[in-house]
Amino acid sequence: MAEAEPQEPRCNEESTDESEEDDSEEEPKLKYERLSNGVTEILQKDVASCMMVHEKFLALGTHYGKVYLLDVQGNITQKFDISPVKINQISLDESGEHMGVCSEDGKVQVFGLYTGEEFHETFDCPIKIVAVHPQFVRSHCKQFVTGGNKLFLYEKSWMNRWKPSVLHEGEGNIRNVKWRGNLIAWANNMGVKILDVIAKQRITNVPRDDINLRPDMYPCSLCWKDNLTLIIGWGNSVKICSVKERHASEMRDLPSRYVEIVSQFNTEFYISGIAPLCDQLVILSYVKEISEKTEKECCSRPRLDIIQPFPESCEEISSDALTVRRFQENECRDYCLEYSEGESLFYIISPRDVVVAKERDQDDHIEWLLEKKKYEEALMAAEISQKTMKKHKIQDIGLAYINHLMEIGEYDLAARKCQKILGKNTDLWEFEVHRFKEIGQLKAISRYLPRRDSVLKPFIYEMVLHEFLESDYEGFATLIKEWPGNLYNNAIIVQAVVDHLKKDPQNRTLLKTLAELYTYDQRYGKALEIYLTLRHKDVFQLIHKHNLFSSIRDKIVLLMEFDSEKAVDMLLDNEDKISIDKVVEELKNRPELQHVYLHKLFKRDHHKGQKYHEKQISLYAEYDRPNLLPFLRDSTHCPLEKALEICQQRNFVEETVYLLSRMGNSRSALKMIMEELYDVDKAIEFAKEQDDAELWEDLILYSIDKPPFITGLLNNIGTHVDPILLIHRIKEGMEIPNLRDSLVKILQDYNLQILLREGCKKILVADSLSLLKKMHRTQMRGVLVDEENICETCLSPILPTDASKSFSVTVFHCRHMFHKECFPELSTDSSVHFCNICSAKHRGPGSAILEMKK
């Protein structure tokens, strides 16, 4: 249960220990403030007895018979002297233009606030209730109810006279009445009645639960939630009644409406007032407690509870204990609760105080969250409702959150929140950075400083970098890499790094960072030197990105030592910037690197480095023999004599054999194969490549006294040399390994050759016959000769105009035609004649002669 203190300083006599607020984590649903200004003046001299709330103003009745009209701030706008004694009830119509008042001396007045219309009546008993028709302003609704032990309905007749009629009597004094629409509800000593004004029928009677309570001390509280729902609070009992239409078949002699109690439950304390709040109830409770000092029952502070009703029970949503003036002197009947439907305002009236309770808005919710130091939730709530907030600003809440995080030592979280809260406000950023510096936490905020939009002054970034440089080289390097170079004065930071390097000249982190700073400052030469010293992988990227080829002309050896493959690729890709000659010159003292470069160059283009091919022979021989033979085979520019000399000096047999064969000295090459390599297969392969009969003869002569060589020759010679030549030269009695298998292979190879020849012959004969038949068919075909054809010699039509005359025409299969007399004389040397037009080189089946005679 929360203890609510209205927002107005209280007098010393009202200060008690009980007024301290509870630190409950549950947020209150309502907020409270005293109605001051004119109300304070009134209650210093008088005592409040009742109040009526209209959406435009308030009407307050006092024990001295006064009725004050107040604005919503409590300022007095009008005053009426009704009676010298207590005002019991005030009633207003919906328009707020007519008021009904009754007092303890039996007086009843109904009058217009802005017209001269007025009704006066004095009864012979105290009048506790009065209620004017909600639509009293209308001429046909001039009605009100009042009474003491009888309930009178006054209606204005057509002659402007008030006509009373008794609605109910005989059940004691009537102590409360509420009029809504066409229904009137009133409470007497026995219970609550509801009357239909149109039908003049009493709908129901809701009996009082606790008959032991005095009705004058614990009066009934009535409230209409809507036109058909009545809420009753009496003693510690609450009932919610719903007025419903009765079905026509059930009417008989019964009223057309009936009441159903939809919810009923008991409360912990006695009820002084009740009001609706959406689907919940607001209940003002009178509380008595046992005093710890006197051990006697005494009045405690009243409670304002928000209750969620259920059919037979309820749930307490919130409960606030209210500190009202002189609450120790009050009884249950001294309190009442009124409310304004449109604004959800609740007025707690006590003899010496009027407190206004209202639903908490988003500003109140945020304020409560801030009081409870729930800054994250407050910030989220503010972001959601920033358009409706009036008291708070997102930035102020955010700054308070940052302050709180720094107070509790959550520096990293505070720094992260700066990014969101401070946004693009550079002044706030700089202020917060200085605060972080004061507590030695610049590192925490460094990651979140603005880098692109709304950047801060350079000295802010320099200050952060100096902080890292003094204590964290790795962090300093990270910031230099992440921050754009235009955020700070590069020269200042470079000098600071240089000063630190004097103390630790081999620090790789500082050297690498200095190289990056030189790069930002476009001092690429110095950056390149550092990268090369460090053998850093970014050196090649730096050269390409900033076109630093002029700077590396004297650093080629360093680049090659660092990564020869990348260096060579880069140099070859940029020959126009660093020539081949320059590279070779720079690498002259490092032949192993020179070889790597020239080898890659040769792989790319066999002709570009031709002037260095002679040099490459010795380089290959020294550093890369496996690639020497491919180089000799592919190069057309290397001097063979020089290559042969080097290979012979180093006893490179395979390379020497190749060079000898290439220089035309095949016999020496073959001899070297047989004598140096002693490899018959390679010798046979070499002889096959050269396809020279003398080489085969030399090979046979060398092999004739070497059985393994003879076996190799027998296995492979059959397709190039007649094996009989070799077999005849084999000495009798010589043991030759696998001789039988070799002879069988020779016979098989011979049979295979015979079969291949026969197969080829059959294919050739078949193809020749097919082509001959095709040519014969072609030449046997007739050729169409008509008037459109011409003689190829005289260019006149081939057919005569007079068909009766005899003529002779020569037609070739190539479709060229001649008159017999126009065709040249045939040669007597040959019986075959050809078309003069067609080329003799392309004679074919179409050029044979065909004679046509008639």
Automatic annotation (TrEMBL):
Residues 791-839 form the RING-type domain. It is a peripheral membrane protein. Residues 1-30 are annotated as: Disordered. The keyword Isomerase does not apply. One of its GO terms (cellular component) is lysosomal HOPS complex. GO terms for biological process: cellular response to starvation; endosomal vesicle fusion; endosome to lysosome transport; late endosome to lysosome transport; macroautophagy; protein targeting to vacuole. Gene3D superfamilies: Tetratricopeptide repeat domain, YVTN repeat-like/Quinoprotein amine dehydrogenase. CHCR repeats lie at residues 568-712. Residues 14-26 have a biased composition (Acidic residues). It comes from Podarcis muralis (Wall lizard). This is Vacuolar protein sorting-associated protein 41 homolog. The gene is VPS41. Its main location: cytoplasm. Keywords: Autophagy, Cytoplasm, Cytoplasmic vesicle, Endosome, Golgi apparatus, Lysosome, Membrane, Metal-binding, Protein transport, Transport, Zinc, Zinc-finger. Plays a role in vesicle-mediated protein trafficking to lysosomal compartments including the endocytic membrane transport pathways. One of its GO terms (molecular function) is identical protein binding. PANTHER family: VACUOLAR PROTEIN SORTING VPS41, VACUOLAR PROTEIN SORTING-ASSOCIATED PROTEIN 41 HOMOLOG. SUPFAM superfamilies: RING/U-box, WD40 repeat-like. CDD domains: RING-H2_Vps41. The keyword Metal-binding applies. It is found in: Cytoplasm, Cytosol; Early endosome membrane; Endosome membrane; Late endosome membrane. It comes from the Eukaryota. Belongs to the VPS41 family.
